[in-house]
């Protein structure tokens, strides 16, 4: 079956760095997405990786290793507004999005 | 990025009535639209996938007669919750993708449905 695993919840301190991991087992792979979702709102796009390596976009970076079925989202200089759920999703061979359950990130002052 | 508009953002309806939710792609042609529901503190649950001009494909456990999906044009898909019950209260979100070869799906703002 298809499976996306990510931690349920993480806590970090304002100004610090946090890494949210995602491992996946899917039928085919056409890329991996990270979305941010604040409570009560729809998800917003953060990043897309289809090749191995690190993609940096401001305070957020996303890493992919296809051979390991592994990705992480790295958030630097954490701000209180970064408190949200972070969703990992994989595009499978049929171009269907397979979603992880999301990681709730709590930022403390 | 592209814009997907979902309407209404919030709706309260009486038990037994039907509610229609619209999802529009404003600046691109969405050949595929996805409908999700999300309960508090849970991840997105895909309900159905609809391709323009064809019948929606429903996920296992989703009642197609209760959740009617229409994707009559390349810019509009609708989800109608028929004979709504309190257990249908949820956050419904649509997303749209331009085509099979395209990757990113753009999300609507979501609709908070409360059935009383």
Task: Please give the number of β-strands of chain B.
Answer: 11
Query: What's the overall average pLDDT of chain B, rounded?
Result: 88
What's the helix count of chain A? 0
CA distance, first residue to last residue of chain A? 40 Å
In terms of DSSP E residues, the strand content of chain B is over 45%
Task: Report what the structure shows.
The complex is a heterodimer of chains A (109) and B (116). Chain A has no helices and eleven strands. Chain A is an all-beta fold. Chain A has strands at 3-5, 9-13, 18-25, 32-37, 44-49, 53-57, 60-65, 70-75, 84-91, 97-99, 103-108. By secondary structure, chain B is an all-beta fold. In chain B, 0% of the residues lie in helices and 51% in strands. Chain B contains no helices and eleven strands. In chain B, the strands form two sheets. In chain B, strands 2, 4, 5, 6, 9, 10 and 11 form a seven-stranded mixed β-sheet that branches. In chain B, strands 1-3-8-7 form a four-stranded antiparallel β-sheet, with no helix packed on it. Chain A binds chain B through residues 30-31, 33, 35, 40-45, 48, 50, 87, 91, 95-97, 99-102, 104, and chain B through 1, 6, 34, 41-44, 46, 49, 91, 93, 97, 100, 103-110, 112.
Topology:
The complex is a heterodimer of chains A (109) and B (116).
Chain A (H helix, E strand, L loop, with lengths): L2 E3 L3 E5 L4 E8 L6 E6 L6 E6 L3 E5 L2 E6 L4 E6 L8 E8 L5 E3 L3 E6 L1
Chain B lengths: L3 E4 L2 E4 L5 E7 L6 E7 L6 E7 L5 E2 L8 E7 L2 E6 L8 E8 L8 E2 L3 E5 L1
């Amino acid at each position: 079956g298809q499976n996306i695993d990510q931690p349920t919840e993480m806590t970090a301190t304002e100004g610090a760095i946090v890494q949210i991991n995602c491992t996946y087992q899917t039928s085919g792979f056409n890329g991996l997405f990270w979305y941010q979702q604040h409570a009560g709102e729809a998800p917003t796009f953060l990043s897309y990786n289809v090749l191995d390596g690190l993609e940096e976009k401001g305070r957020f970076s996303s890493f992919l290793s296809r051979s390991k079925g592994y990705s992480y989202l790295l958030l630097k200089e954490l701000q209180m507004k970064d408190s949200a759920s972070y969703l990992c999703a994989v595009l499978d061979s049929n171009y269907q999005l397979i979603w992880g359950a999301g990681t709730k990130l709590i930022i403390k002052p | 990025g592209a814009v997907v508009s979902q309407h209404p953002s919030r709706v309260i309806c009486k038990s037994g009535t039907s509610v229609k939710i619209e999802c529009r792609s404003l600046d691109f042609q969405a050949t595929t639209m996805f409908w999700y529901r999300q309960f508090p503190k849970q991840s997105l649950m895909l309900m159905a996938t609809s391709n323009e001009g064809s019948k929606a494909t429903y996920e296992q456990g989703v009642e197609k007669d209760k959740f009617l999906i229409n994707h009559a044009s390349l810019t509009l898909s609708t989800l109608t919750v028929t004979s709504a019950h309190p257990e249908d209260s949820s956050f419904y979100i649509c997303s749209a993708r331009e085509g099979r070869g395209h990757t990113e799906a753009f999300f609507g703002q979501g609709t908070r449905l409360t059935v009383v």
